[in-house]
Design a protein that fits this description.
Number of strands: 14
Largest sheet: 5 strands, mixed
Helix content: 25-40%
Order of helices and strands: EHEEHHEHEEHEHEHHHHHEHEEEHEE
């Protein structure tokens, strides 16, 4: 039996990620969009839900305000989202996954983990990943990238290495070395705020992270400290959970300059609400509780929450709730350093709700 870096049985994990999924579907279905910079979303008051690779060359990214995207790429073409179509394609892809293993953990409509450890049938995980990608292209006309490794953390990193339409493998003997060469910002599970905190401690790369003791990381990052200590060494014990139940969906942002104007704070909340609502829609979830997180310039932190007797009906309703929670706590002499929105009390979203409720505004 082969063993990994921590002496455990080596698993065969594949992370499959559809390439620029929403935008690629639109280019597939409309030949006039092929080879052109495309953004799925809305221009006025909206954000980019997805960008084609042609648009990404100009710096356009998902969750970017649409007006900023237009400044970066004046030729950008905005397309209204069609989430019913995206869900249908996602179901096609998941049906292909199910033919290879019952251990499939979807993260969103366009990506999933597969555990092939006990389902190789005499083949390698790399060979199966190649076959899955070919099957996806044949069935949907779309491309997917895949990462193959011995744990979830490395498989996800690997799937980003040769996008689009690529395959990358990180074997057990190369895991720790691969991680140490990466900048902290590339680590899945380390967001911009945490990366900034790490950089303040001189932790810029995986090698820097690996030099820290477990005690040091736990003291500064709490319960996440042990996770960071492990991934710096290529270790990740998390299992692929096909029935993973998500308890909440959230987003937060730390600002380079403390917010002191309420209107600017409302704009910041609008971007967060858009991101949370999009992730909830991708996961097919609706929630009843909106929680606001505020961190002030002196690092004091508070949360405020409001619950409804029914699921929140729209992105705008969620934003309105967050703004109402912010109003009585915004004024502070130190300004606001961080804002966050979390949607919890999750349940299956109603299938008859129109995609319009995702809060991506119509094209002007």
């Amino acid at each position: 039996m082969t063993t990994g870096p921590a002496g455990e049985r080596v698993r065969r994990i594949v992370h499959v990620d559809m390439d620029a999924f929403y935008a690629s579907v639109e280019q597939r279905d409309n030949p006039e969009l092929r080879g052109r910079p495309v953004a799925v979303g809305g221009i006025q008051r909206g954000v980019v839900a997805a960008a084609s690779y042609e648009a990404r060359r100009f710096g356009v990214r998902s969750a970017m305000p649409s007006m900023r995207a237009m400044r970066l790429c004046p030729a950008l073409i905005f397309v209204k989202p069609r989430f019913d179509v995206y869900r249908a394609v996602s179901q096609q892809v998941r049906a292909i996954f199910a033919e290879y293993t019952p251990l499939v953990e979807p993260l969103s409509l366009d990506e999933a983990y597969l555990d092939l450890t006990d389902h190789l049938d005499g083949r390698t995980a790399t060979r199966i990943a190649q076959e899955i990608r070919a099957r996806i292209r044949q069935a949907t006309g779309l491309t997917a990238s895949a990462g193959v490794s011995y744990n979830k953390f490395l498989a996800k990193l690997a799937s980003d290495q040769r996008k689009p339409d690529g395959l990358f493998v990180i074997p057990p003997e190369a895991g720790a070395e691969f991680v140490q060469s990466l900048p902290i910002g590339r680590f899945h599970g380390i967001g911009p705020a945490t990366a900034a905190r790490m950089e303040a401690h001189g932790i810029l790369t995986g090698a820097d992270l690996a030099r820290q003791s477990l005690e040091f990381l736990s003291a500064r990052f709490g319960k996440s400290g042990s996770y960071y200590w492990n991934i710096a060494r290529g270790i990740d014990h998390r299992e692929v959970k096909p029935n993973r139940i998500r308890k909440s969906i959230g987003a937060e942002n730390t600002y380079f300059e403390d917010l002191r104007d309420l209107a600017a704070a409302h704009e910041a909340l609008a971007e967060l609400a858009e991101k949370v609502w999009r992730h909830a829609a991708n996961a097919g979830r609706a929630g009843r509780t909106v929680t606001l997180k505020v961190k002030y310039g002196d690092f004091r932190q508070i949360t405020r929450a409001r619950s409804l007797p029914r699921p929140v009906e729209s992105r705008d309703e969620m934003l309105e709730m967050a703004c109402e929670l912010l109003a009585p706590v915004f004024a502070d002499p130190h300004g606001v350093r961080l804002l966050g929105i979390t949607l919890s009390g999750l349940e299956e979203a109603r299938q008859d709700e129109p995609p319009r409720q995702l809060g991506l505004f119509d094209q002007a």
